[in-house]
Amino acid sequence: MRVGWIEFYNTLPFKSAVLKKDFTIVKGVPSFINNLIYNGNVDIGIISSGEYIQHFDKYFILPDISISSYKDVYSVVLVSDVPIEDIQYVCLSKDSKTSNFLIQVIFNKFFQRKIRFGFSDEFLKCGTVLIGNKALEYKNRYKYVYDLSKIWFSYTKLPFVFALWCVRKDFYEKHPQKVNIFKNKLKSSVKSFFKEEISTYPDNIKTYLENLDFSLSKEHILSLKLFSSYLHELNLIKDLPEFNFIKS
């Protein structure tokens, strides 16, 4: 089984289940893992929720687990040297699909502002999307920092789901038992991490991880559906997704 793995701080609770000798581990940033699983080079992995939403027909979701947040997430931010009301251009992240979708929803739907988006940071009055460890390490270099999850929550009162554990349908149909065993290991890993391992990390990482939410409830699915509806309205996705899970 080929497992797509992202070495961010927010994946640490899953680490003990993933880094085993009985799997082939493929590491990379979210956008890289998204492409691998889409093209069939990875069987199962933690992928951007935006990847599932865009290509839901290829995947099943592993239930009960995600990387989500209520209010601040701290590691998905818009940074700038001008206040957000003056931003005219946003430099998107090359590492993330979900965050790039989210920032477009925020400006177009929540703020009702038409600005430009791209991958250049050379424009004046520019904001930049930072994610993951890079956001945690570099955001304080900027004058203004805006937490995208906090903005989402302020407008929707729902958690934001950044990543899902998903499996390709073609792999699951051949190996359902193997996938279910792996899913149970992931759930156990999260529990044991917060019970036994988190105390070994520096206080700033502990605080960051304890603030995250690793569940996947009906409320999370409601949030994903709302997010999908906004993306559909903005023509960022072709079809509204179905949310299909493996059978436990």
Q: How would you describe what is shown here?
A:
- This protein folds into 2 domains: 2-68 and 160-233, Periplasmic binding protein-like II (D-Maltodextrin-Binding Protein, domain 2); 76-156, D-Maltodextrin-Binding Protein, domain 2, CATH 3.40.190.
- It is built from 10 helices and 11 strands.
- Helix 4 (98-110) crosses helix 6 (148-156).
- The protein is 41% helix and 23% strand.
- The mean pLDDT is 94.
- It has a 6-stranded mixed beta sheet. The chain has a 5-stranded mixed beta sheet with strand order 7-6-8-5-9.
- It has 248 residues and is of the alpha/beta class.
Secondary structure topology:
Blueprint: E1 2-5, H1 15-18, E2 24-27, H2 30-38, E3 44-48, H3 49-54, E4 59-69, E5 76-80, E6 89-91, H4 98-110, E7 116-118, E8 126-131, H5 132-138, E9 144-147, H6 148-156, E10 160-168, H7 169-174, H8 176-197, H9 203-211, E11 212-213, H10 218-233
Please indicate the percent range of residues in DSSP E strands (runs of 2 or more).
15-25%
The number of distinct structural domains comes to 2
CATH superfamily of the largest domain: Periplasmic binding protein-like II
Mean pLDDT, to the nearest integer, reads 94
Multimerization status: single chain
Low-confidence parts: none
CATH topology of the largest domain: D-Maltodextrin-Binding Protein, domain 2
Q: What's the order of the H and E elements?
A: EHEHEHEEEHEEHEHEHHHEH
Q: Span from first to last CA? A: 19 Å
Name the helicity range: 40-55%
Q: How many β strands by DSSP?
A: 11
By DSSP (H or I, 4+ residues per run), the number of helices equals: 10
State the strand order across the main sheet.
2-1-3-10-4-11
